Amino acid sequence: MTIPKVDLTQRPDVTGFFDPGSNTITYVVRDPTSTACAIIDPVMEFDLAAGRLTFESADQIIAYIGENKLTLEWIIETHVHADHLSAAPYLQQKLGGKIGIGEHVQTVQDTFGKIFNEGTEFQRDGSQFDVLFSDGATYQLGSLSCFALHTPGHTPACMVHVIGDAVFVGDTLFMPDGGSARADFPGGDAGQLYDSIQRVLSMPDEMRLFICHDYGPGGRAIAWETTIGEQKAKNIHVGEGKTRDEFIKFRTERDAQLAVPKLILPSLQVNMRAGEVPEDPDGNMMLKTPINKL
To answer: Which of 69, 220, 253, 287 lies deepest, with the highest CB count within 10 Å?
Structure first.
C-alpha cells in the first residue's frame, strides 16, 4: 500500500520517558493546538524474582499529563513487546483513552496462545484492544493527522505510527549506531524486516524518528530522537545502501548470538492481553512458564 501523504507543517510536541529497567522510551505526544495527547508504549515494572508489579513509570506519566492539563485520547502499542509489560490498562483506568495495536496481533495471539496452552476463554481476535489498526489506517490526535503502517519482521504485528512530522518506529529501528531489531522471535523474518525498514526510510528525510529502545552503544548517553535522513546515511545495519541479502545474512548471524529477553515469558502473556495479567480460576493473577517452547 502507498504511504499516505505526510503533512510536515504539523509538528507535535513529543516528550520521552526512559525506563532504565527495560531501556524502553515511552512517549507522550501532544497536539500543540489543543490539550489532546497520546501515550506510546507505556511500561509497567515487574520484579521477576519477587513476582511483583509496580507503576513508577506510569505514575510519572500520569503526573506529567495532569500537570500540563492534557486529555489522553490514545494509548498506542507499536507491537506485542517481549522485554517489558504494558501499563496500558492502568493508564486507561486513570486517564481514559483508547488502547490500540496493529490488527496482526491476532497472529501473535494465536502463536503464543498455543505456546502458553491458553484455553478457549483466551480470545485470539484482538478483542482485548479497543482499536486494531490496519495498514494505512488514519486517525486523529486533536488537530493532528495520524496514520499507521504495518512493518512486520521483528514481530508479525509491528506497526509504525506517523503523527504529523514524527515517526514512532517501535523496535523496527534503533538509533543509527544501534542498528535494527532482532528478527528471530516466532513469526519474525529478517527479509520482512528489511522491507519494512525500507518502507519507513522512503518518507521525507527531514521527518523526526523516535525509537522505542536505546542501550547507549559504546557508553554514549541514552538517546531516542533521530531523523529519516540520518538513518539512511548512518544506520549501521541498513544505511549507506546495504542490500537485502547483506542485511538478512548479518541479521541472522547476529540474532543467533543474542540472549532471550529476561522478561519475555511474562511480557508476552500480559501484552497479548492488552496489558491485563491473566488469572487462575480463583481470580488470582498468575503467569505460566512453558518449558522448552521458545
So the answer is: 287
Q: Which CATH architecture has domain 13-271?
A: 4-Layer Sandwich (3.60)
List phi, psi (to 5°) of 287: -115, 155
Listed by start position, the domains of the chain span 13-271
Burial class, 243, CB count within 10 angstroms (exposed 0-12 / middle 13-18 / buried 19+) = exposed
CA separation for the pair 203, 215 (Å, rounded): 26
DSSP 210: E
Cell 540472549 appears where?
259
pLDDT band at 293 (very low <50, low <70, confident <90, very high): confident
Which grid coordinates belong to 168? Answer: 514512532
Average pLDDT of the residues in 82-92: 97
Pairing mode of beta strands 159-163, 144-150: antiparallel
Residue 140: CB atoms within 10 A of its CB come to: 13
